[in-house]
Design brief:
With 657 residues, the protein is mainly alpha-helical. Helix content is 43%, strand content 10%. The strands form nine sheets. A three-stranded parallel beta sheet has the order 6-14-13. Strands 10-9-11 form a three-stranded antiparallel beta sheet, with no helix packed on it. A three-stranded mixed beta sheet has the order 18-17-19. Helix 13 packs across helix 14, helix 16 packs antiparallel against helix 17 and helix 18 runs antiparallel to helix 19. The longest helix has 30 residues.
Length: 657
């Protein structure tokens, strides 16, 4: 552009805007060229007597200005990278306090914001190089704590080269030796290690662990040898890590130490401190190895953000110094959110404090809630969620209470029934218990505690409360105290309760301990001292399981029909009914072998088996024959046979005789 007697380089799209800002109405385009044609063109600096070269950068925009901007390789990442690409010196004329240094010449000593900006504008005006000035508003990084603008400065830093001696590849190769929970944690850490730049180890903070380096005052040579580092190490063991900041360099260096480069004897200490991730990343060495005399650690547990932090830096330190990862297992978890899925924040006021949860529902409910969630992902917590978990806790606790109440007179040393003599349904529930033990053991081993919770809760609610314990009531309450029927049931309850308390001890520790103390017989002083339950091989009986699966299929159909009859008013309680079961030939003989126990399985007074004409099982509900027993409440034909107790059935009469 030709304006008056001067020529300017301006982006074509910004000519009009620039001329308007300069207050120029008369101008003409002298020549139009591509920006790439100007690369390397040399200009005179607008203030100092030095040349400036034109370079290209893809972050220059056409929103404001002329399309030609200054670059400051010493004051911003993008400018620094541009400077590196073109071989420009990363000039840094600003000190750590925000004041111009001697490299800024006449501006030395001025604060860059308070006085510096205006001083530069005044100088440009004085030299006739300020064509126009206007204020603009744009987003600029500020400190999140003090809210002041952040000044970017290029400074000398200490780095760890992650590719030195093949370190990066060694770390990547070592990942296959680690057990990951969840599995995708390996991919996350692998991606971080593959793409991590060299690690900047130095920080400019007023606290931290010192970087034990000296600088020769004469030639600036950095001093860091095994001898000098060991001197600092021995001193810190005796005087603490702050000794570095309290003592003079000569007190820490070997007596008479000379600079290996220039022979000087005056030194100054490095003022930067180590990145805190180096501190925590060294915990496998400083804590596990030094204090516990082992390496590596069994397990590292932290949030998913630590693939960039602790997990990452621990791998670097561990593999670099020991040649192997610092952990055998890694567990990565999500974060706690409120009931709406929002991050908890004191300022928002949506924090759910553990103390408040414990105060209202108890520590075990809180522990059960934690175990119920898939913590590999983010977890929500709120009143509705806690209410559901509280209901589940009560269900488990009531299951414990019911079983404890029914084995209060049971002494396993003399009353326990050997497995082969147990009633078949008792052996069936022990088979289901064995399955549960094996499942829970595997889930604990995989750190999948939510599956532990769901498996045990389902076992208590379905296999026990809705099935076994419901069927068992009649036998426990009506059978003679020392009868094989009652002792068989108590044996199964004792084994189940012993296993459940030990499986739940890591989760609802207080409740498990309460129950454990009430379990009869000799046992460990605390449930936390007892071994994890092992499924007895004899309990596992797949043929038995298959038989009872068929029986329970029929039971489901019977219960549905009973409920329909109750809803319609045809019967009152199921005990006041007789089930007429028509079954196909394929089931008739099978169910016939269980004819004596079918009433207790269906929880009715009587069951009649007949052959069906088709292949379907049909259920009819009739009124039972006989009278109601005063003791067991079953309607049976045997009631009234005994003159001394005419209100009892045969079983109840035998029980009290």
């Amino acid at each position: 552009m030709d304006v008056d007697d001067s020529r300017y380089v301006i982006a074509a799209e910004l000519v009009g805007k620039t001329m308007q800002a300069m207050g120029k109405a008369n101008y003409c385009v002298a020549k139009t060229v591509k920006g790439s044609d100007l690369e390397g063109m040399v200009f005179k600096h607008p203030i100092f007597d030095r040349d400036s070269v034109l370079v290209h950068a893809n972050y220059v925009t056409l929103e404001d200005g002329t399309g030609v901007v200054h670059t400051a390789p010493g004051h911003g990442r993008e400018d620094f990278e541009t400077g590196q690409r073109y071989g420009l010196e990363p000039l840094n004329p600003v000190d750590a306090r925000g004041y111009y240094t001697k490299d800024a010449h006449e501006f030395e000593g001025l604060h860059i914001i308070r006085e510096g900006n205006q001083a530069v504008l005044d100088k440009l005006t004085e030299l006739g190089n300020l064509l126009a000035r206007e204020d603009i508003t744009h987003s600029y990084p500020h400190c999140w704590r003090c809210h002041k603008p952040v000044v970017f400065r290029t400074t000398v830093q200490w780095f760890m080269n992650l590719d030195h001696n093949g370190l990066r590849q060694k770390m990547l190769d070592a990942l296959s030796s680690i057990d990951w929970y969840p599995d995708e944690a390996e991919n996350r850490l692998r991606a971080m290690l593959e793409n991590s730049p060299d690690w900047c180890l130095s920080r400019q903070r007023s606290w931290g662990v010192a970087i034990p380096v000296y600088f020769c005052k004469g030639c600036g040579e950095p001093i860091m040898t095994e001898e000098t580092i060991n001197r600092v190490y021995e001193d810190s063991l005796e005087n603490g890590s702050d000794s570095w900041f309290e003592k003079d360099a000569k007190e820490l260096l070997p007596p008479g130490y000379k600079c290996p480069k220039c022979g000087g004897s005056d030194f100054e200490k490095e003022t930067d401190v180590l990145d805190v991730w180096f501190d925590s990343g060294s915990s496998s060495r400083a804590v596990v190895e030094r204090r516990l005399d082992t390496y590596p650690a069994d397990m590292y547990v932290e949030g998913s953000d630590q693939h960039r932090g602790w997990f990452n830096k621990s791998m670097v330190v561990g593999v670099a110094t020991k040649g192997q990862p610092p952990f055998r297992h890694l567990v990565s978890h999500g974060f706690m959110l409120d009931s709406e899925g929002k991050a908890m924040s004191k300022s928002i006021g949506n924090v759910v404090a553990p103390q408040n949860v414990i105060k209202h529902v108890g520590a075990d409910v809180l522990r059960l809630f934690v175990s119920s969630a898939n913590y590999f992902e983010d977890v929500r917590i709120g009143d509705e969620i806690l209410t559901r978990v509280t209901d589940a806790y009560r269900r488990m606790r009531n299951t414990f209470r019911y079983m404890l109440g029914n084995i209060s007179d049971f002494d396993p040393a003399k009353d326990k029934v050997e497995y082969s003599k147990l009633l078949e349904i008792d052996r069936y529930v022990l088979h289901k218990t064995a399955e549960l033990i094996n499942q829970v053991d595997a889930f604990y081993a995989a750190n999948e505690f939510h599956k532990v919770y769901h498996s045990i809760h389902n076992f208590c609610a379905v296999d026990l409360s809705s099935l076994y314990l419901d069927i068992l009531k009649d036998r426990l309450y009506a059978s003679a105290q020392d009868s094989i029927e009652r002792r068989s049931a108590q044996t199964a309850l004792y084994e189940i309760l012993s296993a459940l308390t030990r499986m739940l001890a890591p989760i609802i520790s207080h409740t498990a301990e309460e129950a454990w103390q009430e379990i009869p017989g000799e046992k460990e002083e605390s449930v936390l001292l007892a071994s994890f339950p092992q499924a007895h091989p004899e309990w596992v009986d797949e043929e038995l399981n298959a038989r009872w699966s068929k029986i329970l299929e029929v039971r489901d159909k019977v219960l549905l029909t009973l409920e329909e009859a109750r809803q319609s008013g045809r019967i009152g309680k199921p005990l006041e009914s007789r089930v007429k079961l028509a079954v196909p030939d394929s089931l008739y003989d099978f169910l016939g072998s269980y004819k004596d126990v079918l009433p207790s399985i269906f929880i009715v007074s009587q069951v009649e088996l007949v052959k069906a004409t088709g292949d379907e099982v049909t259920v009819d509900i009739e009124s039972p024959v006989g009278a109601k027993c005063e003791r067991c409440w079953l309607v049976l034909e045997s009631v009234g046979r005994h003159e001394d107790h005419p209100g009892l059935c045969d079983r109840c009469y035998a029980a009290i005789s």
